[in-house]
Amino acid sequence: MNLSNTAFVIKINTQIATWEAAFSRLPKRDQMALLILSMFLAVFIVVGGGYWLHHKAALARDNADQQRQLLLWMRGQAPHLQANSGPVQSLSTIVQTAAAQQGITITQTETGGRLMVTAHHQSFAVLGTWLTKLAQSGIQVDQLDIEQQMGNVLQLQATLTKP
Questions:
Q1: Tell me: the pLDDT tens digits for 17-54?
Q2: Strands 114-121 and 154-161
Q3: Residue 108 contacts by C-beta under 8 Å, 6 or more apart in sequence?
Q4: Could you give the count of Cα atoms lying within 13 Å of 107 in the half-sphere of its Cβ?
Q5: 117-150 burial by CB neighbour count: b if 16+ within 10 A, else e?
Q6: Biggest alpha carbon–alpha carbon distance for the chain
Q7: Which of 38, 76, 149, 162 fits a disulfide with 153 by CB distance 3.0 to 4.6 angstroms?
Q8: Is it the case that residue 84 has pLDDT exceeding 70?
Q9: DSSP label at 26?
């Protein structure tokens, strides 16, 4: 122990002795009230601190769960992203390939970066799935019109662009 630590300890001991002297001069009733208040304050600090730590730990656990779920989702999306990072295909090729996968025959006309497509099919669900696949490929539908033809055949006319 060096000299500065010893002086500090002496100063603290002097202050404690002063507080003990002041406490002993109080009436017994005030001493009891001060002791009860001090115990309540100590319990409040311990319980409040414990609750605060528990609350912060729960928040950290929830955040870790969310980050873990995000990581799992990102890992699940990696094959899709890698599949889409291949060679760049033209808008016409992407639309034709997606239509062929759904069993839809289309006619298309390309003008100025826009592709005007006409498709015929009996099922709205198939046409919807085809449009969803196009959207997942990054194709934007600028204009869409669906009409029911004779024989329960739906005619879809759309203007598509690839941003």
A1: 999 999 999 999 999 999 999 999 999 999 999 999 99
A2: antiparallel
A3: 92, 95, 96, 115, 116, 117, 118
A4: 4
A5: bebebeeeebbeebbebbeeeebeeeeeeeeeee
A6: 106
A7: 149
A8: no
A9: S
